[in-house]
């Protein structure tokens, strides 16, 4: 069984591979296509809208079932930023290191109790001729003052899950995949995945 994930993000691909192996699903990403896939413009204002745009673009182009993930981090003291702009928070290039440094900079002087944040993942499933559906998962926590750890990707080094003294980048992949926003979105697709 194979499922196409409409992403070019290697961190996401790794986590989907790990999480889908128990369903016997082999993950193929846009990086595995023979032809280069144009970047899809994410014109939505919510994670769900953007996940649907990405899933339907690839499902329609190749006439296959597709899952897409749109995700990011919402920081309460920054009025929910970077939110849907998480991938390009520090500039046009997608640069994880610059992005997390910008969050730390914007939070300088903000005391610990006010550094709350959450990761959000919208996972959309689009199939030719059928209605698209989307499920949203979250992971609550707070932002550190320094990056810690080198596992995971993106904003993981500055994110402490609620109740944890380690950042998500100090979690093993198994630990992260048991509590992440991506996990919480995917469990809602379990019935569909079992038959995919
Ligand atoms: P695709 O659109 O090709 O899937 P992308 O990286 O552009 O790749 P998004 O538009 O969904 O994906 O942006 C997600 C952003 O949120 C990006 O900066 C990630 O680093 C960050 N992010 C998402 N999930 C994360 C996670 O589990 N841990 C850390 N950062 C995460």
UniProtKB/TrEMBL annotation:
Gene Ontology molecular function: dITP diphosphatase activity; ITP diphosphatase activity; metal ion binding; nucleotide binding; ribonucleoside triphosphate phosphatase activity; XTP diphosphatase activity
Source species of the chain: Halobacillus locisalis
Protein name: dITP/XTP pyrophosphatase
Any matching Pfam family: Ham1p_like
Subunit structure: Homodimer.
InterPro entries referenced in this protein's UniProt entry, alphabetically: dITP/XTP_pyrophosphatase (IPR020922), ITPase-like_fam (IPR029001), RdgB/HAM1 (IPR002637)
Catalytic reaction equation(s): ITP + H2O = IMP + diphosphate + H(+); XTP + H2O = XMP + diphosphate + H(+); dITP + H2O = dIMP + diphosphate + H(+)
Keyword terms: Hydrolase, Magnesium, Metal-binding, Nucleotide metabolism, Nucleotide-binding
